[in-house]
Write a structure and sequence with these properties.
Blueprint lengths: L2 H37 L6 E6 L5 E5 L11 H14 L8 E3 L2 H4 L13 E3 H11 L2 H12 L2 H14 L22 H14 L11 E4 L2 E4 L11 E9 L3 E10 L2 E10 L2 H15 L16 H6 L18 E5 L4 E5 L8 E2 L10 E2 L37 E3 L13 H13 L19 E8 L2 H14 L1 H4 L3 E9 L2 E11 L1 H13 L5 E4 L1
Parallel strand pairs: 14-16
Antiparallel strand pairs: 1-2, 1-9, 3-4, 5-6, 7-8, 8-9, 10-11, 12-13, 15-17, 15-18, 16-17
Helix pairs in contact: 2-5, 4-5, 5-6
Length: about 525
Amino acid sequence: MSRAGARVHCGLRLGALGLVVLIGATTAAASDAEAKRRSRYNPPTASIVVDVNSGKVLHASNADSVRHPASLTKIMTLYLLFEQLEEGKLKLSSRLQVSAHAAAQAPSKLSLKPGETIDVESAIKALVTKSANDVAVVVAETIGGSEPGFARMMTGKARELGMMSTHYYNASGLPDDRQTTTARDQAILGRAIQDRFPKYYHYFSERYFTYNGKRMRNHNRLLGSVDGVDGIKTGYIRDSGFNIVTSVNRGTHRIVTVVFGGRSGRDRDGRARGLIAKYIDDGAPKRSTPLVVEGWKTRVAGPPPIPVSDPRDETTAKIEVKVASADAAQVVAAPQARAEATDIPEPGSTAPIKPRPVKTVTVEPASMRIAALSPLPPDTRKLTPVTATGRVAEVATVKRDHPPAPAKASEAVATTTASANAVASTDANVPVPAARPRGGYMIQVGAFDDVKEAKQRLVKAQSTAKSQLGKADPYTERISKGQKSLYRARFAGLDRGEAEAACKNLKRSDIPCLLLKN
């Protein structure tokens, strides 16, 4: 070999050696960076397992410790989107506009461009599978007008569901130190979105999503690999670790499992698998707990305490009003409030119910306004008292004018008593339900040619949805369409949460249900 050739050969060997050293250094640096990235998240994991049928907590570890939800945030984003669909404000085919702010979101994303549109159904699938941050903001801006406005709606909805430790500041779950939650709160949300939206919950079981020719896989690797898993969502940011809310429906057993703070996706999934295997058979085989919907905790635990007036205030007076019901006469306080309050344990608990002493509340009668029935024409209408056996009333709509409030408490008693014990109808001998405090919503469960069929439907509906309709007022309403009469079967005296829960329960049994405002 010539001297020149030897120099070239030596140079090549040195260059190759330098390249190897460079690659090794780069790999080591990357490994160090990954180790540092993982070491920044140090809190212990948090987890909870809740039996859906009984509401009983089967397992809890750091369940109330504050954590960042990461992309679990999108469960609430979808909750509010499903609500828009249910109310008819959006359709699955509705097109949503992409703003510059939405398009600028960090990955994971669909890389939508400003001015583009995406249909609602694709948006749902993108949030569930790809966990697309740009799509989350598109949804937020469509519903809330802006992402901060939507985040306030999210936090408000969390409070309605009893998620008292959750605070939302964006729709995607991207890092924000203020955006926090707990494993227990996410278990509530994981149950609520199933109970509230059975029509749309199935999207959480989508394993793949194709958009613009690109096929994307759901980040929830438990789908298809763990028997009975039907959703729902994973999440990760550096400050949260690897999170998951998952639902298992196996035979008659249903549980929701939440894990926060896995060191990796595999670690998180392994913990979830272990909890599912350990607790799936410990739950109740039959549902006994109320549906988890807005206000469910208030209905389970009772309303908040009523402020008690100062007993030294001599201007207050106690007023008792007799009200006739379909079963028997009752004595209630108006405006005096009476209740037997109890300390009610959490659903599924075996702790005894302990009586709690309560006080009688008195308020000034001047604050009352009593609405009486308007005078009835003597020639065509007839007053008929409610009989003890009258469970279902037949009514026709009549106009009711609200007179000025009586000047004296005694007049208020007389007016209310008369109103409660008398009923009005456009048909003779057709009773109207006794007056009593009502919620702002009613539901209709059918319209029939025969009043007997309408009453039979009311009995069937009340039997099907006892927990929501047990104290509601069933009645039939006759309407005329030309020469034909129809009888509407309805329940009154419901708040919105009760009405929505009743409709959902009835539809599961193929009973039609229409929610109406009083």
